[in-house]
Amino acid sequence: MQLPPTVTERAFERLAEIGAGDQGQALRVAVEGGGCSGFQYDIKLDAPAEDDLVLEGKGEKVVVDSVSLPFLTGATIDFTEELIGARFTIDNPNATSACGCGTSFSM
C-alpha cells in the first residue's frame, strides 16, 4: 500500500492566512514533465476536482490529482520562510536527485 502525501500544520496555517478555503480554493500540488531534472512541481491555488485526493486540516484543503499521486507517495508538503522568501515546499522520498531551487527532480 502506498502512503499518501502528508501536509504539515504550518502549510495548513499558511493556507488559512491566505484565505484559500474562504474562496473555495485548495492548494493543488501536481507533478509535470519538464524542469532541469525531468519532473517539476506545479503548486497553485485551484478549485478541487472530483477525482482529486483531498487532504484537509484547519478548514483548508490540499489536493493532488490521480496522475501526480504516484510521484508524491510518502512526500511531505510544507511551508517555509527564509531570507530569500517564503514558499510551499515538498520533501519527496521518491526523488533520486533535485535541482538547487527544489522545484525540479528526477526519479
Account of the 3D structure:
By secondary structure, the chain is mainly beta. The chain has one domain (6-96): Sandwich (Hypothetical Protein Aq_1857, Chain: A). Helices cover 9% and strands 44% of the residues. It is built from one helix and nine strands; from the N terminus they run βαββββββββ. It has one helix at residues 9-18, and strands at residues 6-7, 26-33, 39-46, 53-57, 60-64, 76-82, 85-91, 97-98, 104-106. The strands form two sheets. The chain has a six-stranded mixed beta sheet with strand order 4-5-2-3-9-8, covered by helices on one side. Strands 1-6-7 form a three-stranded mixed beta sheet.
Percentage of residues in helical conformation:
under 10%
Query: Class by helix and strand content?
Result: mainly beta
Terminal CA distance: 19 Å
Shape: globular
CATH class: Mainly Beta
State the domain count: 1
The CATH topology label is: Hypothetical Protein Aq_1857, Chain: A
What is the number of beta strands? 9
Proportion of residues in extended strands? 35-45%
Brief summary:
The chain is mainly beta and 107 residues long. 9% of the residues lie in helices and 44% in strands.
